[in-house]
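User: We ran a pulldown and think these components assemble together. Before we commit to crystallization trials, I'd like a predicted model of the whole complex to look at. Sequences follow.
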Amino acid sequence: MENTLVNSNGTITSGLDANNVSVFDRSFVYGDSLYEVFRTYDGRPFGMHEHFERLWVSAALCKMKLSQTQDHLKAECIKTIKEFREKNKSDVYCRIIMSRGVGKIGFGLKNLTTPTHYYIIVQSVDDFKSAPIEKGIRLQVVGRLRNDPRALDPAMKSGNYLNSLLAYLEAQEDGFDDALMCNHQGFLTEGTTFNLFYIKRGIVVTSPLPLGMLDGITRRLLIQFLAEKNIPFVETPFKKEKLYSADEVFITSSLKEVYPVTQIDRHKKKPGSLTLKLREIFHERVLAQCLKN
Amino acid sequence: MENTLVNSNGTITSGLDANNVSVFDRSFVYGDSLYEVFRTYDGRPFGMHEHFERLWVSAALCKMKLSQTQDHLKAECIKTIKEFREKNKSDVYCRIIMSRGVGKIGFGLKNLTTPTHYYIIVQSVDDFKSAPIEKGIRLQVVGRLRNDPRALDPAMKSGNYLNSLLAYLEAQEDGFDDALMCNHQGFLTEGTTFNLFYIKRGIVVTSPLPLGMLDGITRRLLIQFLAEKNIPFVETPFKKEKLYSADEVFITSSLKEVYPVTQIDRHKKKPGSLTLKLREIFHERVLAQCLKN
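Assistant: Here's a predicted model for the assembly, 586 residues in total across the polymer chains.
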């Protein structure tokens, strides 16, 4: 891939030459891998510590014993980002993929001939100011359910992404930008790559984690921020009708930060004033935190 | 990998040299791939047509547009098997993996720079007679549920295998050979790589497909065979207690054919006479069918 840099277990190459994964890599054969995505602001990674802590949570849920230390992996990410930024001045998207390793076909871990493999992909990321805020994002509550935590826990950020991908394709076919998924009881969980919030009469609402979703780092920081600022907030299960009648709806993710939703199914919304205020203040806080590091 | 041959989009190499998958291959990044496994008897593939028909069913469920024709892929499988058997006299296991392709990170199909990629892995398979029938297989009904068809349909044979892998690891930790999974209503669905049958008072019982399982080709052929032989058979949902009190329990798969279960949770079983009879007759039929082709 053009304009990408790939670090495969310590060897950095251009994305164009990154054709070095084994056919027997378990991420390729079974999606038996974990990953994290974080970005930089002015070249400084944001929330890297939190992302690596969550990677270790995913590993526990996946019974995957990671061979590398957090410090080693962080240093490899920083090295790759630095090398990328020597040629590209833009901020970067950094994805780290941890595969359980390479081995003979078969589930047994005794088949693994090598320890966990890591792959780091670095590429440019869009500037905060370039996001088309007025357009926002148009979401469909799709028929496809989110994975049940008793089958495959969405709290684990893994290489098994077909559930979300198929939700995304369903929404795209119907002309939407992206998808929201419910659990088997009809309660909203999350989007394909983001968490969901709505605002009604000044109260900010989001779904509780046990319904089946990722413990989003932006979600987590925003909730902390709402508490500090005494902005009314509640975590409670809700169905799609609540979104239809909400005053404002927004999503959160490490790449989109706080971002307005402008349509839910057939119901149009305007980017709301509290959403835009949260977006601005949250972004300032992110920058301030990056400067401290 | 030793003693394997890999065909990557038409190029055949030893498994030892098969380090040529792109980091941007969607099977690697998202588990966004489909697969089939079949074997040969005396060098002749069994059920290849059925496996390819099912691959196309999986592709429809996954909204994946396959670029190659069935005839082309079959010819590539046969070519790879033939080349393997020039050096190895044993029968072979053949796995074909279809990846949605290679492209920039992101769900959008517009990111795909190339059409579907195929990878064929060929290796030796154990002889039918070498299976330790008396030992059979010891299975645990694990706590982890099978994927809900409304989230990710188990009828689709995909590269998202963590649900089954984690079920397998759970059973292994508890000292069992492999796992059986229930759906959210507590009804048995299937094992990690096989379908499930039990026999009570001469009646053969298995779970209906809509509960959430693969439409196994051995399962399908066995059901057809039971009908022809007027052996009483019923497809009905059942819970684990039915297995505990069953006279015989067995599994089916393309690799294990009909194979006795010798333990379910704490309940031991002996390989039953009807199971062994079905195993023998089924195997003879498989051989006869291979000779016809």
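The mean pLDDT of chain A is 95. That may be worth checking against your pulldown data before setting up trials.

User: Thanks, that helps.
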